[in-house]
Design brief:
The structure is a single chain. It contains one helix and 16 strands. It is mostly beta strands. β15 and β16 form a beta hairpin.
């Protein structure tokens, strides 16, 4: 059911009573009874949706917790989502790799990868749209809609559409390997 690349590996599976095993039980329940996230090759919350090819999400095994925030939506149709090491994703976040064609809603358009750098923090109910690249140490404010890239990183962005709210001092930012 799971890819050996993600299970049971990383800090979440240090022993049989660890959090990772609790996630596996919840995920199993969601797949069997709720028919949720079938085909995804790593344990994920039954209260989030991974639409499309969940295997097109690239992330560090130690960041498996990002897929256990409730009510998230990871849409990976014909593109990939790249999530950098040490990034945090809050509940209710939507990361989208394509939009509907406004003339034919059964078709997808604007299909493009989403890249999130390392040590980023995506706030609750934020939405990241196709083609967006967030550089390292980018903080996305709660409820923001990110329509363009902030590839330079080291900043706080917020609003709809998101814009730079504050620049961060690179010397003050530390890498968080979540270990």
């Amino acid at each position: 059911m799971y890819n050996s690349e993600f299970f049971p590996k990383g800090r979440w599976f240090s022993n049989w009573r660890s959090q990772g095993w609790k996630w596996v039980i919840a995920d199993f329940w969601g797949r069997i009874f709720l028919k949720q996230n079938k085909g995804v090759k790593f344990p994920c919350s039954p209260f989030s949706v991974i639409g499309g090819n969940g295997n097109a999400i690239k992330f560090d095994v130690n960041d498996l917790d990002n897929f256990h925030s409730p009510n998230c939506y990871f849409q990976v149709w014909d593109a990939q989502i790249h999530i950098g090491q040490g990034t945090y994703i809050a509940p209710g976040v939507g990361i989208i790799t394509s939009n509907h064609d406004v003339y034919d809603l059964d078709k997808r358009r604007d299909v493009s990868d989403v890249h999130i750098g390392k040590c980023c923090w995506i706030g609750m109910n934020a939405i990241i749209l196709p083609g967006v690249t967030l550089g390292d140490h980018t903080i996305v404010g709660a409820g923001s809609v990110v329509t363009k890239s902030f590839s330079e990183g080291y900043r706080v962005v917020g609003g709809n559409p998101a814009k730079t709210v504050k620049l961060l001092d690179k010397e003050e930012c530390r890498d968080n390997n979540k270990k």
